[in-house]
Amino acid sequence: MLSIKDLHVSYGAIHAIHGVSLEVNDGEIVTLIGANGAGKTTILHTVTGLKIANSGTISYGDLDLRATDASKLIKYGISHVPEGRHIFPDMTVLENLEMGAYSTKKNRRELEKNFTLVFERFPRLKERYKQLAGTLSGGEQQMLAMGRALMADPKILLLDEPSMGLSPILVKEIFSIIRYCHEIGITILLVEQNAKMALGIADRAYVLETGNITISGKAKELLEDDRVRKAYLGQ
Ligand SMILES: Nc1ncnc2c1ncn2[C@@H]1O[C@H](COP(=O)(O)OP(=O)(O)OP(=O)(O)O)[C@@H](O)[C@H]1O
Ligand SMILES: [Mg+2]
User: Fold this and answer.
1) Does residue 202 carry a pLDDT above 80?
2) 27, 130, 161, 199: which one has the fewest Cβ atoms less than 10 Å from its Cβ?
3) Helices in the chain by DSSP H: which ranges?
């Protein structure tokens, strides 16, 4: 579904991504784990066109994403939940959710169906639908960012550290929502520093270290890998 080959990305003189290749197949949960500064966000930004690659290919089905207008991605079913959430703080919860479907040109009935689905899944958002998003707690903002992405009926969700800064209970809740998204047929590329949770939920995983994929394989196998256990699981 999503295929990245030999990707190189730089910020000026800093070469951040050194020839990364990775694949996400239809229906999979794939996780990309790695320490601060490894380049995880840079890869997602390059997929969504927020950052321009130096070289390499990024394809989504038959589509060449490097040659595709970033504003069209949502129509092709690619939703990005960015690091730090980036909700619209001065808009209400309801307005933020509407924005998620904005460029998909859904009719009223389709919108209502998606609101129902999101509110069923996130009762906290339903209770707070009139509240300004900037006044939500961190966990609620993460739910809003995910709910907003779901409003567009994505085929693939790109999640950038959804568990960051959340309490253990909320982390569990966010991961149960990721599982639910997977169950309803959404393919997931999950960027995480919480390697234990991410490897627990994923089918396959890649470890990124200073811009290089150093380990990849079935998530279950990585949980047993000594290098992963030492560096990312604190064991
Ligand atoms: N706008 C920028 N200008 C210059 N360097 C940048 C910029 N954004 C990222 N970098 C550098 O690129 C490298 C990769 O950063 P990136 O944000 O992709 O890492 P990350 O794996 O997402 O880290 P984290 O887990 O902390 O979010 C880092 O060395 C970072 O300092
Ligand atoms: Mg990041």
Assistant:
1) yes
2) 130
3) 40-47, 93-100, 108-121, 123-127, 138-150, 168-183, 195-201, 219-224, 226-232
Token match 């811009």: residue? 211
Which CATH number applies to 25-45+70-232?
3.40.50.300
- Name the residue at shortest CA distance from atom 30 of ligand 1: 37
CB 82 less than 6 A from any atom of ligand 1:
no
What is the distance between the terminal CA atoms of the chain, rounded to a whole angstrom? Answer: 34
Give the residue extent of every domain in the chain: 25-45+70-232
Confirm if 39 and 211 have CB atoms less than 8 A apart: yes
pLDDT at 234 (0 to 100) = 81
- Residue 224 backbone phi and psi in degrees, to 5: -95, -5
Q: Which of 36, 42, 46 to mutate to test the pocket of ligand 1 (most atoms within 8 A of CB)?
A: 42
Atom of ligand 1 nearest to the CA of 83: 27
What is the tens place of the pLDDT at every residue in 88-132?
Answer: 999 999 999 999 988 787 888 888 999 999 999 999 999 999 999
> What's the pTM?
0.94
Pocket test for ligand 1, best of 15, 33, 41 (most atoms within 8 A of CB): 41
